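can u do me a favor
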């Protein structure tokens, strides 16, 4: 490294950066990344940019991060292209510039970067830096979705569900809602529950509706709580349970969902004093992310 070998300088920097064979030393890592970066080593340029971006060994400096991301991006470094696009997208360290964001998202997306593919799809979906183009949005959502990007899977499902940029296709919507729902995307869980509940693209299936309403409700989705409460109230696919219905109406009311407060108050009349006290306590003690209590 001291003789000017860029690859050795990079590897030495990486060892200081990660504490391999030496104690972690961000300043030494920066010194050797800088030496390699000045010789055009793309990975060194990228890692140096990261240190400025995240404030490791140096104060956060978005402008310097952008400078080194650009050097690496111009050499085809996909992660640098994505991070540079993000800086232009957010206006951090560079002027806000949607066209430049699209340029660099495209470069990274074409190399298979799923996050870049998703963000590029968003730009086409919302007309940021490019004219609105639903077909291009679907193209990039699909590429990201096929790599397991949950938000892309959800947005792709939504476009099939609503017929944006493509013919309405409920079965395709279910496929992609399911993929996203299984990764914990709560909006996908809720929309998937709706489709099973209403028989859209699939036969009505109360058990599946309950499964996915419950998953979304556990993440704090107010409408899922409300719909699940109705199923408990009416005994749809599950034994009637007015205490559970009350608790779920109360939780959705706590989030300001229209009609939930009234439904909660009506359900209160169906409970004994003891049941009402238990249901109220359960609603008060539950926090988002926990499994729903059983009453």
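np, heres the sequence
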């Amino acid at each position: 490294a001291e003789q000017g070998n860029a690859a050795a300088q990079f590897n030495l920097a990486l060892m200081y950066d990660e504490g391999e064979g030496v104690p972690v030393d961000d300043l030494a890592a920066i010194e050797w990344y800088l030496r390699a970066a000045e010789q055009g080593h793309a990975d060194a340029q990228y890692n140096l940019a990261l240190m400025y971006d995240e404030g490791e060994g140096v104060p956060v400096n978005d402008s310097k991060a952008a400078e080194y991301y650009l050097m690496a991006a111009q050499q085809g470094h996909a992660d640098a292209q994505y991070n540079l696009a993000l800086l232009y997208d957010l206006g951090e360290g560079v002027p806000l510039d949607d066209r430049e964001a699209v340029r660099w998202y495209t470069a990274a997306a074409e190399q298979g970067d799923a996050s870049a593919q998703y963000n590029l799809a968003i730009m086409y979906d919302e007309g940021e830096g490019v004219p609105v183009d639903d077909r291009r949005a679907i193209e990039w959502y699909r590429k990201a979705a096929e790599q397991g990007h949950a938000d892309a899977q959800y947005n792709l499902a939504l476009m099939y569900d609503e017929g944006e940029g493509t013919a309405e296709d409920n079965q395709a919507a279910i496929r992609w809602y399911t993929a996203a729902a299984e990764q914990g995307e709560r909006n996908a869980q809720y929309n998937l529950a709706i489709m099973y509940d209403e028989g859209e693209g699939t036969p009505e299936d109360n058990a599946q509706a309950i499964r996915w309403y419950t998953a979304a409700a556990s993440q704090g989705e107010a409408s899922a709580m409300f719909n699940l409460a109705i199923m408990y109230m009416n005994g749809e696919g599950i034994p009637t349970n007015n205490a559970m219905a009350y608790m779920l109406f109360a939780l959705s009311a706590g989030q300001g969902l229209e009609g939930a407060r009234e439904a909660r108050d009506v359900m209160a009349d169906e409970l004994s004093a003891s049941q009402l006290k238990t249901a109220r306590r359960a609603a008060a003690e539950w926090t988002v992310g926990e499994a729903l209590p059983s009453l």
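The mean pLDDT is 96. hope that helps!!
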